[in-house]
Structure formats: C-alpha cells, structure tokens
Amino acid sequence: MSFVEVDLFGVYVAPMSVLMIVAWLVTIALRRLAARAGVLAWVWHPGLFVLAVYAIVLASLTLVAAHAPLRVP
After folding, report:
1. Which of 32, 40, 48, 71 is the most buried (most CB within 10 A)?
2. Using one digit for the tens of pLDDT, what is the confidence trace for 18-59?
3. At a CB cut-off of 8 Å and minimum separation 6, what does 11 contact?
4. Residue 9 and residue 36 in contact, taking contact as beta carbons nearer than 8 Å
5. Range of the domain at 15
6. Does an H or E element contain 6, and which?
7. 29 and 50 Cβ atoms separated by less than 8 Å
8. Does residue 1 fall inside a structural domain?
9. Rg (CA), the chain
10. Domains in the chain: how many in total?
C-alpha cells in the first residue's frame, strides 16, 4: 500500500486530496439521487446524513485505492 503524489499541471498534490474531490463529486450525485427519490425527507437531519454518506464514500474510495495495484509509468 503506497500512495504517491499526483502531478497536476506541475503541482504535486497529495493523493488524499484527489480522493476527497472524487468523493465529493460522488456524494453530490448521490445527494441529488436521494433528493429525487425522497430519501432526504425521511432522515432526521439531511446535512448530517449527507456528511455521513460523504465519509462512507471517502472511506470506500480510500480502501479501493489502497488495494489497487500501483501502476507507475
């Protein structure tokens, strides 16, 4: 398990920050899907629910990235 820095236009970025952005985009899509399906109307606090979904998505992406084979060109 080795995370290497990501080169974005000459700036090295921590891989966790890239995972956080991807998790945020996935959470936005899931939040829109939940709002359209009416799930957010059934939860006690929608903001906390979305935060919990973000944490679950981020943890899942981190686990998948940690166990993915490292391909360095």
Report:
1. 40
2. 899 999 999 999 999 999 999 999 999 999 999 999 999 999
3. none
4. no
5. 6-67
6. strand 6-8
7. no
8. no
9. 15
10. 1
